[in-house]
Amino acid sequence: MEATVEVGEPLAGAEKLQERLQKRHQARIEDVERRKEVKESQTVAEEKSEYFTGAFNRERAAVEELLSGCSGADRAAVTQRLEEATAKTAQLQKFLNDSVLFLTQYDLRQAQAALQKLQTSLAETREEAIPKKKFAFRARTKAADKVSPGSDTSTPDAGTPVDARSTKLVDEASEQGGFSNLSDVFVTKTAEEIQKRDVLLTHLTNCKVRLFGSPSTLHLKHIDNCEILCGPVSSSVFVDHCRNSTLAFPCQQLRTHNTTDTQVYLHVTSRAIIEDCCRVSFAPFSWSYPSLKEDFSVSGLDQGRNNWNQVDDFNWLAAGTPSPNWTVMPEADRKTNWDPEN
């Protein structure tokens, strides 16, 4: 009679061992694949970053060349160069915004700083290229003080005596698309005056400003105790040396420097950046006027995308700890009535 051999337990053990080996082998394959994907992703990011840097620098150099060519050129040539430089700068801003996801923080800051410098140079070149307009703008402010606060200073008050020379200065000032050296007045600009243009507001004290339309860029410098509302800005808003003020505008990007005790009602499609600022508070953009929707379309901004509370403080590098230099404005403190009389 043949003996019976017990094989069940050894076979079961071999199957478990084989299963463990297969799982280990599969885990190794998956780990190799993950590492491969990470490496490929890093390579792609590096390639994208290299492409961005090269393309960005080429376009920036092209704009700088256009601006340098304005010196000594006739008015028609200057106007053409400035229009081309403005268009290229706006394209450069869009290129940067579209590249934010794969750029390192260092590369992003470098590009943002270079773009800000370029946009500042563009605004300054626009002012300096036609000196008569620059001086006309400053001379106009004395006449503006005679205009009633509730009127649009771009048009002389019919009851104010203004000679032909002053009228000409007011007309030329309107072409600048901004205001300078004003105090204790209420002023406005229409869409026809600022549409797709660089707008500069500087040295304003205790003023209320309404800018209707969609400018290309907005520069605010040396603003004290003012309320400034602006329609959608197609690229960037630059704020420097602003205090005790209320600002409201939609834009692609906001750069704020040397600003204190200021409220910002913001619609921004990329990010807001502050530097050397303190006691700045943010709330979502809430000003409205009849043609706001059309101006959003002109600007190209996404009305459904608002990163108003995503603020980068370049002076605060403590990861995981909120910056003490800015806050989200409590809802109870947010302004809802934008009537200039309030």
Describe it.
The protein has 342 residues and is of the alpha/beta class. The protein has seven helices and twelve strands. It has helices at residues 8-68, 75-98, 105-129, 131-145, 164-176, 191-194, 292-299; strands spanning 179-183, 186-189, 198-205, 208-211, 217-224, 227-230, 233-243, 246-268, 272-275, 278-284, 311-313, 326-328. Strands 1, 2, 3, 4, 5, 6, 7, 8, 9, 10, 11 and 12 form a twelve-stranded parallel sheet that branches. Helix 1 packs antiparallel against helix 2 (75-98), helix 1 packs parallel to helix 3 and helix 2 runs antiparallel to helix 3 (105-129). It is globular, with a radius of gyration of 29 Å.
Instruction: Pick out the low-confidence regions.
Output: 132-175
Question: So how many helices?
Answer: 7
Number of strands: 12
Radius of gyration of CA atoms, rounded to a whole number: 29 Å
Mean pLDDT: 79
Secondary-structure element series = HHHHHEEHEEEEEEEEHEE
User: Which structural category do the helix and sheet elements fall into?
Assistant: alpha/beta
How big a fraction of the residues is strand? 15-25%
Shape: globular
Main beta-sheet strand count, sense and barrel state:
12 strands, parallel
Relative helix content = 40-55%
List keywords for this structure.
342 residues, 12-stranded parallel sheet, 7 helices, single chain, alpha/beta
